[in-house]
Amino acid sequence: MRRLGISVDWQREKFTLDEELCVAVRKVFIELHKEGLIYRGKRLANWDPVLHTAVSDLEVKFVEKDGQLWHIRYLLVDGDGELVVATTRPETMFGDAAVAVNPKDERYKSLIGKKVQLPLTERSIPIVADDYVDMEFGTGCVKITPAHDFNDYAVGQRHKLPLLNIFTPDAYLNDSDEVPAAYRGMERFAARKKIVADLTAAGLLVKVEPHKNKVPTGDRSGAILEPYLTDQWFVRTEPLAQKAIEHFQKNEPQFIPENWSKTYLQWLENIQDWCISRQLWWGHRIPAWYDENGKIYIGENEAEIRVKNNFSSEVILKQDEDVLDTWFSSALWPFSSLGWQERKPFAEQPEDFQKFYPTSVLVTGFDIIFFWVARMVMIGLKFTDQVPFTKVYITGLIRDSKGQKMSKSKGNVLDPLDLVDGISLEDLVKKRTSNMMLASQVKEIDKATREEFPNGIPPSGTDALRFTFCALATMSRDINFDIKRLEGYRNFCTKLWNATRFVLMNVEGKELVNVNLEKRHKYDRWILAELNKTIATVRENFQNYRFDLVAESLYKFIWHDYCDWYLEFSKSILNAESIDDALKSGTRYTLVQVLETVLRLIHPIMPFISEEIWHTVAPFLGVEHEKTSLMIQKYPEVDEKVIADQKDNCQEIDLTREIILKIRQIRSESDISPQEKLDLFVRGENGAQIELIKNSGEAIKFLAKIQNLDFLKVGEEPVYRYASAVIIDATHAFNQPLEVGVKLNNLDKEKARLEKEIAKKEKDFAVLQSRIDNPNFAKAPALVVEKTKLEFAKISSELEKLNEQVEKL
Predict the structure, then answer these.
(1) Is the model's pLDDT at 272 over the cut of 60?
(2) What is the structure's pLDDT at 438?
(3) What is the pLDDT of residue 79?
(4) Strand 226-235's sheet: what is its strand order?
(5) How far is 170 from 27, CA to CA, in rounded Å?
(6) Which sign does the torsion angle of CA 336, 338, 341, 342 carry?
(7) How far apart are CA 339 and CA 351, in angstroms?
(8) Which CATH architecture has domain 480-645?
C-alpha cells in the first residue's frame, strides 16, 4: 500500500485479531445469541472435503460440466412393478430415505404410500408425494437423500424422513449400517463407478443419458463440495435484513453506480441464514463452552462462565474448536476499528467513533456486495442504529488482457509491484508457475506468458500505474488490463517531466512578473482559460466518481493543450525580438503558474511525480515548500470569470490551431518534409476572420514553418501550384469556409492524393444522398434530419473544393 502511494493514517492501523477488536467480536456474538439471532443446529452445509470446513453459500461457485443422468430401477416391495428414478449422483443412493413423485402426476398416484426396495441394499423406503418434484424431469420420480442434498433436506423435513449421513468428512463412504460393506471406505467417485457397474450387473440400470450439471465448487480449494450434515453455528439473518431493507428504501446507503442497489436489495429479500462457523485453525474462536453432557455456555471467557454458573474447578468445560467466518469480524469493521466495544449511548463511545462513524464512502468490488457490504449494513444497524457508510462506490474487477479473471491457477496474475519496478521474463515465468497445484498447467502458463511478455515487463513507476487504473475505471465495468495502456501513461509521466525541464530552462535566473490577466499575451490568457475549464471538469468528475473522465481531461490538457500547444506558443513569444520584456515576463510567470496548478490538480492520481516537481517549481511563485507537502496545499478552484472573459480569445486560438493542424496534415499527405519552409496562403471571405488570422501570423509561421504568408480574397489565385484544405465551422464565431494552401513542387503526387480523398468523400456523399432520398427519412426525429442535412452540405462543399483543386493542378 505504501509503494502504491495509498494515503492512509498509518497510526490508526488495525487488525481484526487485535485484542480490542476481539472484544467487540465476542460482545456481538454474545448479544446476538442472547436475542436468539445466533443458534447452533444440525443442518446441511456446503462442506469442503479438502479444507475440512463448512463454506458459506456465497463462497460456492457453480461450474457447468458435462455429466450423466442415470435411470435406476427401484422395485416395488410388493412385487407389483417398479419405479424408474433419474439421478445425477448415484453414489448418494445409500442415503436415500424416500422416492418422491408429484401429487398431480396421474402415473404414480396409486403408488403413493407404498414402498420400494433400495437397490443393492436390503432396505425399503416409502414413496411420498411432494410438489417439489418436476413431472417433466427424467421419469418424474426423484430419489430423496435428505442428508446430502439441500432440496431433499427440505422435502425430508416436510415428510419427517430420517437424515442418513453416508459420507466421512473426506467424502469417502462411511461405515454406517446404511452403507453395504462392499462400498465402505471408498472415495465417492470411485464408489460411483462401482455402484453403476453393480447396478448394470443386477439389471437395475435402465439407461444413461448425457446431462449438463452445475457442480458446486469451493472458491478457495477448487474441490467439489458436498452437502453435508454437521453441527454449525448460524446467524438468523431475516430480522437483520428487514431493517436493512427499511433503510434501503431511504437510499441508505447510496450505491454508485445506482444499478448495484438492485443486486443488493435482491440479496436482502432472498436472504438465507448465515453459517458462521468454520473448521479452521486460524481466526476468532467461538465464545462457546461445553460441559461433559454437551450443554452449551456462551460467555466472554471460561472464568466468567464458571462464576456465572457457580461451577467448581472439578467441572470440565471445553471451548468450541471452531472459529468464526472471517466475514463475521469483517462485518464489524466500520465500528470495531474505531474503538467500539459495547452498545452504549453515542456520546459515551470513543472519540474516534464519534468523529468518524458513520464513514462517508466505502470503495469495494461488486463480488463482495453480499459477503461484506450487506453484512456490514445489517450488523451496523443492529449495534449502532446507523448505516455504517453513506455511499458505496462499486469498482469493476481487473481482468487480464483477454478478459479472464486473474487467478493463481490460471497463471495470469499481475503483481502491481512488477508493473511498478519491472520484472524479467524468466522471473515472471518462475513467479507464475511455482507452487502450482496442477503441474499440467505449468507448460501452458509458461507458453502464454512468453507470448504476452516476450521481453518481460518494463518498469513504469507507481504514478503511471495509478493513472492507468483511473483511466480504465469506467463506472463499475470490468477492466481488461492492457500493458500497452500502462506504457502509454508512463510516456505521459515522461512528458510531464520534460515539460518541467523546459519551463525551468526558461525561467531560472529570469524575471517573472504576476501581471494582471488583461496585460498578458493572448496565448497566456488562452492557456489560463483552458486550465480553468479543466479544473471545472476535474472537480465535477471527482464529485461524480468518474475517475476515468478525470484522467481523460488531465491527459488532454497536459499533453495537448499545455505541452503540444502552449509550450510551442511560448517559444514564439520568448524568441521574438518584437515582443517587449514585460509580455515575456508574463509568459514566464504563466508557464510556472499553470504547471504548479496542474501539479496540485493531478496530485491525487500521481502523488510521487507531482510532489517531487512541485518542490522545484513552487519557489518561483514565492510559495513556502520546504516544511510542507503538496498534499496539504489547497486544491485548485475554478475562476469562471477567466473562462467567460477569454471566450473570444479562445475562439481565435482554436482557429489558429486548426490552421496549423491543416498545414501539418497537408505536409503529411503530400510527403513534404517537416523541416521544409513553405509558402502559405489563406483564402476566405470573412474579413473579421482574416484579421484574427493575421494577428496570429507570427505564431503560424513559427509553428508551421512558413516563410511567406499571403491572404487572398475569394476568386484570387496564388501564382504557384498548391495543395489546400478547407476549414468549415472552425469556431463558433464563423461558419464560412476558409481555405489554406501551400506551394507544391511534386504535382503528380498531390493529384493522386486529392483523387483518393475525392473517392472517399463521394462514397460518404452517396450514403447521405441515399438516406435523404428515402421517403421514410422525413419521419426521422427532427434533430437527426437536421444533423444529416448539415453533414451532407458539408461534404458537398468539401467535394466541390477538392474537385476545384484537381482542376487547378
Answers:
(1) yes
(2) 56
(3) 82
(4) 53-55, 38-48, 226-235, 274-275
(5) 34
(6) negative
(7) 8
(8) Orthogonal Bundle (1.10)
Distance CA 10, CA 688 (A): 61
Query: Residue 445 and residue 452: Cα distance in Å, rounded?
Result: 11
* Residue 457 in grid coordinates: 515487463
pLDDT at 770 exceeding the cut of 50: yes
Tallying the residues shown for the chain, one arrives at 809
pTM of the model: 0.75
Q: Widest CA span of the chain, in angstroms?
A: 117
- Res 730: pLDDT: 46
Beta bridge partners of 214: 64
The one-letter amino acid at 591: L
Buried b / exposed e over 440-452, threshold 16 CB at 10 Å, is ebeeebeebbeee
Instruction: Decide if pLDDT at 740 tops 70.
Output: yes
Taking the C-alpha atoms of residue 433 and residue 448, their distance in angstroms, rounded to an integer, is 11
H or E element at residue 538: helix 522-543
**Cβ(27)–Cβ(341) below 8 Å:** yes
Question: pLDDT digits over 457-490, tens only?
Answer: 999 999 999 999 999 988 767 888 889 999 999 9
Comparing 61 with 31, which gets the higher pLDDT?
31
DSSP codes, 727-791: E-S-SSS--S-EEEEEE-S-HHHHHHHHHHHHHHHHHHHHHHHHHHHSGGGGGS-HHHHHHHHHH
Q: Between vectors from CA 170 to CA 166 and to CA 175, what angle results, nearest 5°? A: 35
Distance (Å, whole) CA 280 – CA 48:
11
What's the angle, vertex CA 334, arms to CA 328 and CA 337, rounded to 5?
90
List the grid coordinates of 359: 464513514
Q: Which three cell numbers stand for residue 13?
A: 492501523
Whether 576 has a pLDDT exceeding 60, the answer reads: yes
Angle 245-248-253 from CA coordinates, rounded to 5°:
135
Rounded to 5 degrees, φ, ψ at 152 are -65, -30
Q: Which amino acid is at 661?
A: L
| Pick from 638, 628, 658, 657: nearest CA to 728 | 658
pLDDT band, residue 354 (cuts 50/70/90): very high
3-state secondary structure of 392: strand
Q: What is the pLDDT of residues 333-347, one digit of tens each?
A: 999 999 999 989 999
Parse the chain into domains and list their residue ranges: 10-37+236-286+322-395, 61-227, 398-459, 480-645, 649-808
Kindly report the CATH class assigned to 10-37+236-286+322-395: alpha beta
Fold of 61-227: Isoleucyl-tRNA Synthetase; domain 2 (3.90.740)
Q: What is the DSSP string of 340-405?
A: --S---GGGS-HHHHHH-SEEEEEEEGGGIIIIIHHHHHHHHHHHSS-SEEEEEEEPPEE-TTSPB
Q: How confident is the model at residue 516 (pLDDT cuts 50, 70, 90)?
A: confident
Burial 158-194 (b: 16+ CB within 10 A, else e): ebebebbbbbbeebbbbeeebbeeebbebebeebbeb
Is the fold of 61-227 the same as that of 480-645?
Answer: no
Residue 202 confidence (pLDDT)? 95
Using 50, 70 and 90 to split pLDDT, how confident is the model at 685?
confident
Helical ranges in 580-684 per DSSP H: 581-602, 607-617, 640-645, 647-669
* Position 432, amino acid: R
pLDDT of residue 454: 93
